[in-house]
Amino acid sequence: MVICRYLAIIALAASTLFGISSVEARRESTAALAPIAAAELPKEARITLARIHDNGPFPYERDGIAFGNREGLLPPKPRGYYHEYTVKTPGSRGRGARRIVCGGETTTLAECYYSDDHYQSFKSIRP
């Protein structure tokens, strides 16, 4: 998590020093997303993954909405490519900070990312 942010800062600094576009710099930083095995996710995240795979039902109204990737931490894709899903956070009254974001055909789980800090960082979920 800290390493990914550090690499993103370096990539953005390089873009300023060497004239690389910010999009190119972000693309470089997304290559450094730390992987996490689905089995290593918290049980609530594994439940959310199963719901995504089954196309629901989802307990939160905003589950499945388009994720804008405004932070630029995920690989650049057209608007509407990514969708976000809430991962229940024990002790939280609302949605909490944990999310899974999946791209493309979401039910395949081929391109999914986990954030436990409300999009400040992501880990690439591998099967």
Question: Would you summarize the structure shown here?
Answer:
By secondary structure, the chain is an alpha+beta fold. The protein has helices at residues 2-18, 22-30, 43-53, and strands at 34-37, 66-67, 82-86, 99-103, 112-115, 123-126.
How are the SSEs ordered, and which strands pair?
Elements: H1 2-18, H2 22-30, E1 34-37, H3 43-53, E2 66-67, E3 82-86, E4 99-103, E5 112-115, E6 123-126
Parallel strand pairs: 1-6
Antiparallel strand pairs: 2-3, 3-4, 4-5, 5-6
Helix pairs in contact: 1-2
Taking pLDDT < 50 over at least 5 consecutive residues as the criterion, the unreliable ranges are: 1-30
Separation, N- and C-terminal Cα atoms: 20 Å
Query: CATH-wise, what's the superfamily of the largest domain?
Result: Microbial ribonucleases
Indicate the percent of residues in helices: 25-40%
Q: How are helices and strands ordered from N to C?
A: HHEHEEEEE
Number of strands: 6
What is the architecture of the largest domain at the second tier of CATH?
Answer: Roll
In CATH, the topology of the largest domain is named: Nuclear Transport Factor 2, Chain: A
What best-fitting shape do the alpha-carbon axes yield? Answer: globular
CATH class wording of the largest domain: Alpha Beta
Q: In total, how many domains does the architecture comprise?
A: 2
Give average pLDDT, whole number. 84
Q: Count helical runs.
A: 3
Biggest sheet strand order reads 1-6-5-4-3-2
The percentage of residues in β strands lies in 15-25%
Q: Biggest sheet: strands, sense, closure? A: 6 strands, mixed
What's the gyration radius in Å? 15 Å
